[in-house]
Amino acid sequence: MATRLRNRDAVRDRARPDGAAAQPAQPQQDSPATVAVHRIAQATGDQRTLGSVVRGLGAFSLSLGSAQLAVPGLVCRAIGVRPSGVAQTLQRAVGVREIAAGAGLLTRPRPAAWLWARVGGDAMDIALLSVALTDRRNDRGRVGGALGAVAAITAVDTVSAVRMSAVAAQSSRRLRRTAAITIRKPVEEVYRAFRQVEPLPGVQRQAEITDEVPGELLCWRSVDGAPVPSQGCARFHRAPGDRGTEIVVELEYAPRGGPAALLAKLAGEEPQQRARDQLRCLKQVLEIGEVVRSR
Predict the structure, then answer these.
(1) Please, what is the Cα angle at 238 between 234 and 241, to 5 degrees?
(2) Of 27, 111, 280, 287, which is most buried by a Cβ count within 10 Å?
């Protein structure tokens, strides 16, 4: 059988017009630009990483804009453009734009609009550099290098703008809810018990602590991949009249929609409902030593 298979392959190869043996198909490779965009998208997928990228873009905008306003002729020479009066005026105008964008990125919590403004500015810069590339009086090598750099920054700006827009859209749909309870035990004891609650209120799976002041404050958020992304903070106060400890839990989460929301509520999986149930169970355990189940 093996001999017949080898003979059949040999006949097939001889039947080729050029007599060449069959070559295995080579996997298609993405272009460097496509690979770069994929890497940027992966890097900005996490919100903390996205925030760091946005702050970096803001600092870059402020630095570049300051240089364009202070020494426009030097910037022109650095990118290979002849420092004429018109070129320096354009540099100053772009510098004002960069400073405005930088300030917006660094002062706004979710600056999607400022990121899209940077994308629009990048398009203008590409157009200006493309025109400069056709002028023989300019250093075309440097202009081409500047054009490539702007194209790379445009990719970062575009992916970041898309990611931040998605975060802003999700945030606009998030609900903020509060649950509170008073437990007849000292603050320190209540805090220690609450700290051991698993999962934390409003969370269906694992959570990570984001801020903590022992005996006063505990903040957390659900890990990536949670069915209902959520975050919350619990504040601990001495209840008036020496009645123990008051716990106030503030939750923020993206609610499910449609039938899933009804099913989650019926199953006791809605974050605010879960938080109230957990606080009630904690009160019973601390005050009477067990959880009372209704029949």
Answers:
(1) 140
(2) 111
